[in-house]
Write a structure and sequence with these properties.
Membrane topology: Single-pass type I membrane protein
Helix content: 25-40%
CATH class of the largest domain: Mainly Beta
Protein name: Tissue factor
Number of helices: 4
Strand order of the largest sheet: 4-3-6-7
CATH architecture of the largest domain: Sandwich
Low-confidence stretches: 15-24
Structural class: alpha+beta
Largest sheet: 4 strands, antiparallel
Number of strands: 16
Number of domains: 2
CATH superfamily of the largest domain: Immunoglobulins
Mean pLDDT: 85
InterPro entries: FN3_dom, FN3_sf, Ig-like_fold, Interferon/interleukin_rcp_dom, Tissue_factor, Type-II_Cytokine-TF_Rcpt
Pfam families: Interfer-bind (PF09294), Tissue_fac (PF01108)
CATH topology of the largest domain: Immunoglobulin-like
GO cellular component, one term: plasma membrane
Length: 288
């Protein structure tokens, strides 16, 4: 009899386990979880099979306690804006995406539903930096001034919208690449501030410039931001400087031909005048 009860108990446990496992297999679990962050606006993104289940996102700072993102509780979307939750910026965060039935009672055990953990993410060291805007101003014949506009973030503090320099401070530098128009040789310099003077340029030549944010304290994959569009200075070449070698040689040849024609015509005119004068003198002598 005892053996029968034991067998029934084991059978009941196995049946319950199988039902729970089957149920867990049906519940959609967040997959392909990754972070997307540009200029410190950070979105947690995942994929899941369409269903009536919702998702709640929790996050942990440096392996500490879990907090719930108030904007991502029982959401049906497959993304969550984590921008305002990831502060301080220079910390490593992990997110936990919980799958839940719609209208779940928060007194119930959440561990019975699937959890998916994100890769660790540090916004200060991993957020990508977008292309910057800048201007180029001539200050001397052989020098220009580069003025860079620090990109704004979507983060506000005390009604002020922060720029990437407000966050990165002295870690933010700019890489400036430039080359002479029509040349393949490129040079680059690094500026510690948002302004830079580029000297030793060839006077009157056109130069093209591109700028990118540069954070040398980061790992190689996240050191440099996106390159900007290029801006080229107009240059001030002389008309002769704009001519090709062939055109210049052709022009010189034509000029020489014209000079020869002028000289030849002048010589012929002189000869004619002399001959006429000689004839006149001969006629006058004959009359006398």
């Amino acid at each position: 009899m005892a053996s029968l009860k034991t067998a029934l108990y084991v059978g009941a446990c196995m049946t319950a386990w199988m039902i729970t496992t089957a149920k867990m297999d049906i519940i959609p679990k967040a997959e392909n979880v990754h972070w997307q962050s540009v200029d410190f606006k950070t979105i947690l993104i995942w994929t899941a099979t369409p269903s009536d289940y919702t998702y709640t996102v929790l996050y942990s700072e440096d392996g500490g306690n879990w907090d719930t993102n108030p904007d991502c509780i029982q959401i049906s979307d497959s993304e969550c804006d984590m921008t305002n939750s990831l502060k301080p910026f220079d910390r490593t965060y992990t997110a936990d995406i919980q799958t839940e039935p719609a209208g779940i009672n928060y007194d119930s055990d959440h561990d019975e539903f699937p959890h998916t953990y994100s890769p660790p993410f540090n916004p200060y060291r991993q957020s990508e930096i977008s292309a910057v805007n800048f201007t180029v101003e001539s200050v001397e014949e052989t020098a220009v001034s580069i003025n860079i506009i620090d990109p704004l973030t979507s983060i506000h503090e005390h009604t002020k919208q922060l720029s990437i320099r407000d966050i990165l401070k002295k870690d933010l530098k700019y890489k400036i690449m430039y080359y002479k128009s029509g040349s393949t040789g490129k040079r680059d310099v690094t500026s510690n501030s948002s302004t830079a003077k580029i000297s030793n340029l060839d006077a009157g030549q056109s130069y093209c410039f591109m700028v990118a944010a540069f954070i040398p304290s980061r790992a190689k994959a996240h050191k440099q931001g996106e390159w900007s569009s290029q801006i080229c200075t107009p240059g001030h070449k002389s008309p002769l400087g704009e001519l090709s070698l062939g055109a210049l040689v052709g022009g010189i040849f034509i000029l020489i031909v014209v000079l020869i024609i002028i000289v030849t015509v002048a010589v012929l005119c002189c000869k004619c005048c002399r001959q006429k004068k000689t004839i006149q003198q001969s006629s006058h002598s004959t009359v006398v």
